[in-house]
Amino acid sequence: MKKWGFKWFSLVLVLVIFLSGCGEKSSSSSEGKNEDGKVTLKIISVSQTEQPDGENEKKLAEEYMKQNPNVKIEFVGVPMNDLYKKLTTLATGGDLPDAFTMTPEFMRTAHEMGMTADLTEVFGEDYLKDFYDNIIEESSVDGKLQLLPWNATPQALIYRGDWFEAEGLEAPRTWDEFITAAQKLTKDTDNDGKVDQWGFGMIGTRNSSGASRFFPVMRSFGAEEIRKDKNGKWVSDVGTDEAAKAFQLYGDLVNKYEVVPPGVTQTGFPEAASLIATNKVAMMFTGPNALGTIYAENPDLKGKIYSTPIPKDKQHVSTFGIIGYGISETSKHKEEVADWLKFLVSKENSLKWNELSGRLPTRKDVGEAQQLTSPEMAGFSEAIEYAFPIPNFSTYAQFSDIVSEGYQTMITEDGKAEDVAKNAEERAKELISKEK
């Protein structure tokens, strides 16, 4: 009995080890794959929440999957205004997707949290030489690329060129000219005693969408949200007289000049673009991506929308508006994601994307093939000359809430510009004190 008991025990032990080994081998060989053997890439994309961008991005993905049948791309749409909070939550829970929309505004926070892989290593320096040097620099932290830059959306002023010509107006280059044009284009078009056309479609939401448009306005007066002084210390100009002028401008456009349609604190990018598309407003601060959105809603406006740099007090200012994709440090499919992104930013697809969305290219060879001299694109082409790099401040994204709280206070007539600037300064100082 003892002899047979030992034999049975030995046999069971061998079977357990064998089956265990088979299980480990199977798990290792199929890790991250579906039952059909395909690798699934999960990607958070803000483009999926916008049209026609979402549909066009899916078409590019479908084309890629036909050429690479071993890969399945699954998009998760997250609005830009919710992106940073969503990524932070997922990173904290250890549940990041393989890739996600990333911007220079958030990349330092993402880098410090360990979200992003070093794309300089993933793609290699030889490949990255095809991109504009300043764009690669703007997309990097300490020489480590945090996002593959897909396109650039420098901020400018778009305006109804046909309306301006009908009124004998020139493109506004100063704030005084801007106010004059906005007043002249705010009117009652059907003579029912109510204004139904406004001069300016302000994005007044308290988020990064509104703040990213206010930063160039404030900088045009000479106030920077965050910078280093001559001693290398971080300081902010949000409490200066220059910043107060910018806050006052936003308040006056709504309350004094009344050139902004109602509901401005709830007007984000989609709403403002729709106001242009439906012939409700004449002007809007935005990147060239708005053109694709507007034309998708109203194709008849093609050829009627022009662009010019954001007006100035002391100087014209713009942003690079770089947007791209970061790859998760925890992704098990970095090579597959990199291959998809190379396809996405290839010359052929970059030209196609520019035609569909209006966004500017990030690759040198694509830029050389562009014609940006039309009235529609000339302002964006000039604006990129005035673009400022995002300051290398780890919590830069939090300045969005500081300034957006300020202009919303002015819009709702709850404060004076000097008090708003002082409050912004106090919040900025607290933020700076926490910088490592």
What does this structure look like?
The protein has 19 helices and 15 strands. The protein is an alpha/beta fold. It folds into two domains: 181 residues, 3-Layer(aba) Sandwich (D-Maltodextrin-Binding Protein, domain 2), CATH 3.40.190.10; 210 residues, D-Maltodextrin-Binding Protein, domain 2, CATH 3.40.190. The protein is globular, with a radius of gyration of 26 Å.
Overall average residue pLDDT: 90
Radius of gyration: 26 Å
Number of domains: 2
**Strand percentage, roughly?**
5-15%
Return the CATH class of the largest domain: Alpha Beta
Biggest beta sheet attributes: 5 strands, mixed
Coarse shape: globular
Strand order of the largest sheet: 2-1-3-14-6
Distance between the termini: 72 Å
Query: In CATH terms, what is the architecture of the largest domain?
Result: 3-Layer(aba) Sandwich
Question: CATH H level of the largest domain: which superfamily?
Answer: Periplasmic binding protein-like II
Number of helices: 19
Summarize the model shown.
The protein is of the alpha/beta class.
Give short descriptive properties of this protein.
single chain, 436 residues, D-Maltodextrin-Binding Protein, domain 2, 2 domains, four-stranded mixed sheet, 15 strands, 47% helix, 14% strand
Topology:
Blueprint: H1 2-29, E1 39-45, H2 53-67, E2 71-77, H3 80-92, E3 99-102, H4 104-112, H5 119-123, H6 125-128, H7 133-138, E4 140-141, E5 144-145, E6 148-152, E7 156-160, H8 161-167, H9 175-184, E8 198-200, H10 208-220, E9 227-228, E10 234-235, H11 241-255, H12 269-277, E11 281-286, H13 289-297, E12 305-308, E13 318-319, E14 322-327, H14 334-344, H15 347-357, H16 364-368, H17 378-383, E15 387-388, H18 399-411, H19 417-433
Parallel strand pairs: 1-2, 1-3, 8-11, 13-15
Antiparallel strand pairs: 3-14, 4-5, 6-14, 7-11, 7-12, 9-10
Helix pairs in contact: 10-11, 10-18, 11-18, 11-19, 12-13, 18-19
